[in-house]
């Protein structure tokens, strides 16, 4: 099987759909409400999926366009990796160092400018430090980080691979 650009873009779209579907399953079927950091992780995954979808539909011939799409997808999923890592860090803080719970994300978006919302959310809150779901002894942010890291590796490969004449 040959991993051409379009096929890898389709795989990236599929990984985004699977990740978001699982997040929605946990939220709406299992009743786990996402904290602000979880929502920000989803945003990066969704944007990566949309960029991969555009790349799949466009199917560029030019290696410059291929690298441009791959760069945007890499940055987007890199955001999710960074936010998941921050989430894990918050979950491993001693109880006395966990930030207090602040207002909800809806309130922050309504009241504050976007830069302040980003600063507030990324500083974390007490609700982000709660571990309310585990699988094989690891929390959801750990599994998310692993999943996003795998996707990031695919995006990086797509960005730096050889797009010679035979690799259309």
From TrEMBL:
Keywords: Cell inner membrane, Cell membrane, Chaperone, Disulfide bond, Electron transport, Membrane, Oxidoreductase, Redox-active center, Transmembrane, Transmembrane helix, Transport. It is found in: Cell inner membrane; Cell membrane. GO terms for cellular component: plasma membrane. It is a multi-pass membrane protein. Residues 26-43 are periplasmic. The chain crosses the membrane at residues 39-57, 69-89, 142-160. GO terms for biological process: protein folding. Residues 1-8, 162-168 are cytoplasmic. One of its GO terms (molecular function) is electron transfer activity. Its main location: membrane. InterPro entries: DiS_bond_form_DsbB/BdbC (IPR003752), Disulphide_bond_form_DsbB (IPR022920), DsbB (IPR050183), DsbB-like_sf (IPR023380). It holds the Pfam family DsbB. Disulfide bonds join 35-38. Signal peptide: none annotated. Belongs to the DsbB family. Required for disulfide bond formation in some periplasmic proteins. Acts by oxidizing the DsbA protein. This is Disulfide bond formation protein B.
């Amino acid at each position: 099987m040959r991993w051409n650009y379009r096929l890898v873009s389709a795989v990236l779209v599929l990984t985004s759909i699977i990740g978001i579907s699982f997040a929605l399953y946990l939220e709406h079927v299992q009743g786990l409400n996402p904290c602000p950091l979880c929502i920000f992780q989803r945003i990066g995954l969704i944007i990566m999926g949309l960029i991969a979808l555009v790349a799949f539909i466009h199917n560029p011939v030019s290696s410059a366009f291929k690298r441009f799409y791959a760069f945007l997808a890499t940055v987007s999923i890199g955001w999710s990796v960074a936010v998941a890592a921050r989430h894990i860090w918050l979950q491993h803080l001693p109880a006395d160092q966990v930030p207090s719970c602040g207002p909800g994300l809806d309130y922050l978006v309504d009241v504050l400018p976007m830069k302040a919302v980003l600063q507030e959310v990324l500083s974390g809150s007490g609700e982000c430090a709660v571990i309310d779901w585990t699988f094989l002894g690891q929390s959801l942010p750990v599994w998310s980080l692993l999943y996003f890291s795998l996707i990031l590796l695919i995006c990086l490969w797509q960005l730096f691979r050889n797009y010679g004449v035979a690799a259309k």
